[in-house]
Amino acid sequence: MNEIGRPARWLYGMLIALVLLFVYLPMMTLVMASFSRSKFFKFPIPQFATNWYADVFASLSIRSFFWTSLVIALLVATIATVLAFFGALAFARYRWAGRKLYQKVLLLPILFPQAVLGLALLLWFSAIGVTPSWQAAVFAHLVWIAPITTLVIAIQVYSFDPAMEEAAVDLGATRWQTLKEVTLPILTPGIVSGFLSAFLLSWANFPLSMFSTGADQTIPEWISAKIQSGYTPQVPAVGTLTMLAAVIVMALGGFAAWLHARRRAGLA
Amino acid sequence: MAQATGIVTITAATTARAAPEPSGWRAWLRQAGVLTALPMALLMLAGFVAPLLLVVAFAFMPPQSFSILQPPTLANFQEIFANSFYRSFLASLYLAAATTLICMVVCYPVAYAMVRVFGRVAGVLALLITAPLFVADNLRLVGWMLFLVKGGVLSGALQAWFGIATDSMLYTVSATLFGLVYTYLPFMLFPMIMGIAMVPLEMREAAFDLGATRWQVLKEVDIPLAMPGILIGALMTFILAAGALSEPRILGGSSVVMIAQDIQNEFTFAQNWPKGSALSVLMILVAGVLAVTLLRRIDLDGIFGRR
Lengths: 268, 307
Known about the structure:
A: 0% strand; globular
């Protein structure tokens, strides 16, 4: 009675396929548009070419936006991971008065529209005399990304047996040694996925960058500016390259997870 | 010697963890939990609480001023309601409500199928749904623009393959709504998957054994038990959609103005910080009331720790 029949299974499968198609359709459109030869996008595409990629690679300004995006993302991921490592222990591991409040406050930036947060930060920076720049963007990204990284690591912390730490302490380890030799290695998978997701979220961020970078520009900001000033096929070409970069980072993460699982299996 | 003091500190920390001693705030501050929470707490204070408090303060300053040290006034709010600047706020609430409703109806069967029918590949499916969040939302909307624009993928294909001529599908309120549903769908789907995964199978089986129909099980077991996930998803979708900026601009043209666009205008081109702040306060109130109501009801340890 409770079993899912074959026709129902097929129907559910179709539904999931449709949603996935819906989710990926604009990205497929971008990849396709980037290989169109003509300046104006037209479908069906009359002639395919890679001239827009040649343009993108030759452009020094686009190259500098790539670097800005990359530096911001690397810094955000590194700082967010360090903050989130401790933040996640406070979130899930230790019992302390104030923990429930702390957990809720951490969720607030995630439950707040990024564009409005970006604008509030713009006001805040002006009021305290910080000139918007890529460094300010790192801070703005952290406000939204570090809590997400904390949640990613916290999920790993929940599955962590505190007895491991207590055993290390009983054997005479200092607080620092326990952290370095016991806690850190056990939490490694969560830390790696936290770092990678922080990197990717910063890499793809537009609303926070828009109001905090000032004269500096990231790739998503460049895309927005180009759309305002007039479409060029450089937009889908750059878009395809940033998506490719994200896919490579995710693949590296997947490979690391696979290696980790294999080493675990080897030990057992 | 250093080793010995280290051990002493650790033991102190362990006992404090087991039972926080009520000897003032110094003891409270020495707890491992407080120490590890400190960096994140400072970031939240300096990057979230303080900026929003500043916005609230600016909302009560005289129009066009750039300092918060003046006598407070309600002029900005009067201006908003007198000159129908609240329209963008109402439009945002309406579009956010429609987005939430559509996403909820679409996502429930999908999330159900992902957990209950294709549970074996649930991890892969969840990854496929999450991955687009790592692509800038304005870039994905440009993809939709190329898909929906006149002569784009949809109308071009209809014209070339079926001889059907269509008009542009962009720059309307529906196009904006479409963009919102697209962007915020994962924010509904993901918590819903977590919520449905929390419903114990035995509970459903028991209901069926006791003679409940499929509809009754859905209404009395599935949906109520998955409610924490559904609520988080609905709340996130609503708040994020209400504060959307790129969707009305890229897909909506100038057909509808949402509140984030108005705030941006006041903060940048118009240089009227107090009015932009007053508009932001409306957004902060909606997001704050909804978030606080929800966070009071749910147990975060239960959701993230599955205990």
